[in-house]
């Protein structure tokens, strides 16, 4: 019973992360399942079976709010399903001794990506509205689907930033389309695992617990994203994934590091993680200050006669920015 409650909490937490970032449900939940000793292939199979339900609910919600581009869903989802099926087959045929470090290496790479991306870049808000080309989305979906199945997650971390970086879709439609197309990926990966493994190592109770947690978290995520900055959340989650999978790799037969070496590596990673979270928080505060200054500047232009601010809009904006940032401003005539 304790395990089922823990898994429900894992599903809830992973869905909160995914709902806030548009990625990392599989990476987060698979990392935690591996941490409690689950077989790598069974962990990925369990996650993808649960994702059939969570991605369906997420896709329907995004569709309802107009966040889905169905052309993009088709162009990336079908190749993604093919890649996921192949990835599930590959992972199912690897021995546990080989699969565990392979999956941890993939998850570690994705964790580093999340940590660096959200710490240094934050959330990309660009959009141009140009159509997405099939020759770009097809290979992207194939690779992202394969990584998703073999690593227990990766559809969002690979697909979302690649489409955002293209600058051709607004962020809400990128997240909505990726989340909706993930249903096809989860379905194909689950079929691949079931064909290769049967029901071996897959606990229906675990799948149900993860699913319940994810479904509960889906509406909460909409509230969470308004209160917890995605930039900070990305840094926090990225650090957890890096630390957990580094621990697995250092203890694997590939490396088999001694305790002093492991603890030294952990100490360095904790310091880097703490610095990343602090930097993300500071950058978030700066962004908020600039947004507030812009809003104040717009108001200042309208009320300058009443409170003595300069009539020129540019001067008003400069003065208000200085005030909001706490910088002394030279007297203006």
UniProtKB/TrEMBL annotation:
List the InterPro entries: TM_pro_TauE-like (IPR002781), TSUP/Inactive_protease-like (IPR051598)
Q: Which Pfam families match?
A: TauE
What is the annotated localization of this protein? Cell membrane; Membrane
Q: Has the keyword Cell membrane been applied to this entry?
A: yes
Q: Which residues cross the membrane?
A: 98-116, 136-155, 175-197, 204-225, 263-281
Keyword field: Cell membrane, Membrane, Transmembrane, Transmembrane helix
Q: What is its main location?
A: membrane
Question: What's a single GO CC term here?
Answer: plasma membrane
Question: How would you describe this protein's topology in the membrane?
Answer: Multi-pass membrane protein
- What domain of life is recorded for the organism? Bacteria
For this chain, the family text in UniProt reads: Belongs to the 4-toluene sulfonate uptake permease (TSUP) (TC 2.A.102) family.
This chain's protein is named: Probable membrane transporter protein
């Amino acid at each position: 019973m304790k395990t089922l409650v823990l898994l429900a909490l894992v599903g809830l937490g992973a869905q909160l992360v995914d709902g806030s970032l548009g990625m990392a449900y599989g990476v987060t939940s698979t990392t935690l399942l591996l941490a409690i000793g689950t077989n790598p292939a069974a962990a990925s199979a369990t996650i993808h079976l649960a994702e059939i339900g969570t991605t369906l609910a997420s896709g329907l919600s995004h569709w309802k709010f107009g966040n889905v581009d169905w052309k993009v869903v088709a162009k990336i989802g079908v190749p993604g399903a093919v890649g996921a099926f192949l990835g599930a087959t590959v992972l199912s045929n690897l021995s546990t001794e080989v699969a565990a470090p392979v999956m941890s290496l993939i998850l570690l790479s994705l964790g580093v990506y999340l940590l660096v991306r959200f710490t240094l870049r934050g959330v990309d808000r660009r959009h141009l509205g140009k159509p997405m080309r099939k020759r770009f989305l097809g290979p992207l979906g194939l690779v992202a689907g394969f990584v998703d199945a073999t690593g227990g997650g990766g559809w969002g971390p690979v697909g979302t930033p690649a489409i955002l970086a293209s600058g051709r879709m607004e962020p809400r439609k990128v997240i909505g389309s990726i989340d909706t197309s993930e249903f096809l990926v989860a379905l194909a990966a689950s079929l691949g695992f079931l064909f290769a493994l049967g029901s071996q190592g897959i606990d229906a109770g675990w799948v149900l617990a993860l699913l319940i947690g994810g479904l509960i978290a889906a509406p909460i995520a909409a509230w969470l994203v308004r209160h917890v900055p995605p930039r900070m959340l990305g840094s926090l989650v990225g650090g957890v994934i890096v630390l957990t999978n580094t621990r697995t790799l250092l203890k694997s037969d590939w490396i088999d590091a001694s305790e002093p070496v492991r603890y030294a590596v952990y100490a360095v990673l904790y310091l880097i993680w703490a610095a990343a979270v602090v930097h993300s928080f500071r950058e978030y505060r700066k962004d908020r200050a600039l947004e507030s200054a812009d809003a104040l500047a717009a108001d200042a232009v309208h009320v300058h006669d009443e409170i003595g601010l300069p009539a020129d809009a540019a001067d008003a904006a400069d003065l208000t920015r200085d005030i909001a940032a706490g910088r002394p401003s030279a007297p203006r005539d």
